[in-house]
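Our consortium's second objective concerns turning raw sequence data into structural hypotheses that experimental partners can test. To show how far this objective has progressed, the report includes one record in full. It was chosen at random from the queue rather than selected for favorable results. The single chain below, 236 residues long, was entered without modification.
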Amino acid sequence: MAEQESELYAPVAAWFISANYAVMAEVKSCDVIAVRDGGLTVIELKLKPSLKLIYQLTARARCADYVYAALPFDAVKSTQRRQFLGLLRRLGIGLLWIRESRLGTTIKEALVAKPQPRGGPKDKRLRSAILKEFATRQSDQAVGGQVSIIPLVTAYRENVLITLALLEIHGECSPSKLRELGAPSTVGRILIDNHDHWFERKRRGIYAHTATSCESAHQKFPEAWQAALDRARQRE
């Protein structure tokens, strides 16, 4: 039986991919999202049912077209499965049972998710933010269900890393020069905000990276940092 929620991600992702969905993990507090034909499905990974899970599922339902819970089959006592399925059915939430055996991991769709009604303006903004993150993130190195102390590689993070990589390769640059080299259109704001303290202004309109920034990026985001360097070198 899985000991961490992140262990559930691979089989769930594979199940949706086999149904022609595009899948991404850890998007705007959602464990997993699956997108097909413009429709948004949100999946929450849990090791056992809880009231917190029900809260999360109903919150996701306000911004998604379909919502699923994915749990190990043995996580719910046999005497409680009927009640658990009945509750999810009334909420229109789908359910995926994950089973492990000597033959491997299998998934059974115990409940098919029902279309969810759209929420208010705040929920629509969250939906747009989720789909924007999905559309702009270059890689998916995050794993659904991972604990929050592990830094996530979001679309914004990728933009910060490519900016850092370009400064590492080309040296001091202005924001306009960085954009010419392939930095995002928001590079000016990235340099000014400087959330990771990786950048420094050398003089008016000219920026460089700090002495420890590249090592910091390598330690925190090794794969994403290497990918950013590779992308930057391709644009030389």
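The partners drew two points from this record. The CA atoms of residues 26 and 108 lie 23 Å apart. The chain has a mean pLDDT of 88. Both points have been shared with the crystallography group to help prioritize constructs.
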